[in-house]
Amino acid sequence: MSRLEAGGTGGQRGVALVDILMALALLGIMSSGLFFGFRAGLTSWIIAQQYAAEQQNGRAVVNRIARSLRMVGYNYAGTAPAVIYGDAHEVDFFADLDGTGTAQCYRFYLNSGVVYEAKVTGTGCDTSIRSAPGQPLTAVMEAKALTFTELDFTFWSAADLGGGQLATPLSSTDRYHVVRVEVTAKVQGESSTEPPVTITTDATVRQTGG
After folding, report:
1. Going by C-beta distance under 8 Å and a sequence separation of 6 or more, which residues neighbour residue 147?
2. With contact defined as beta carbons under 8 Å apart, do 118 and 107 qualify?
3. Which residue of 35, 51, 185, 206 is surrounded by the most CB atoms within 10 Å?
4. Who contacts 103 (Cβ-Cβ below 8 Å, separation ≥6)?
5. pLDDT of res. 175
6. Which residues on neighbouring strands pair with residue 109, listed in sequence order?
7. 97 versus 6: which is more confidently predicted?
């Protein structure tokens, strides 16, 4: 009788151990599922935040260009057009952007995925602004993670679409007639799997000189 009792007790202990091991295995499987689900959700959230940041940074650059273009001709007293040069991917102009009371020469252009702003001061700046190197409008760290795949300028002879679209590069006559500039950029994060973001805004020019 004692042997049977001993055997029965050992068997119960064995069954209990198997139950514990199975429970632990099930718990591990459930924990792994929860972990991988959480990680997938976190990755999606990070990508969404990065995508939103790319759009915001891109808009900040485009808005900076648009604000500057609205000041074209401000405090400019020359007889030549305030728009020095304009083509589909670059615009150069006279303006007093820093409020010194004297217009300087500015240039916005795209190079290797980064938008640059160049500034030249002094008499005759219009002859050197075309080749003047600029400073990136994106911060140093942002420039490494944010790529402008396109920067396009469209010039109009009226503030609305009823006016004529001017051919580029702008002729010496059309540079007097620029009233509105449409700025379009495509922005792509280097580590983003999302398609490029297209950002468009308009700037009504203050005056064109002459």
Report:
1. 113, 114, 187, 188, 189, 190
2. yes
3. 185
4. 73, 74, 75, 76, 77, 78, 82, 94, 95, 96
5. 94
6. 90, 116
7. 97
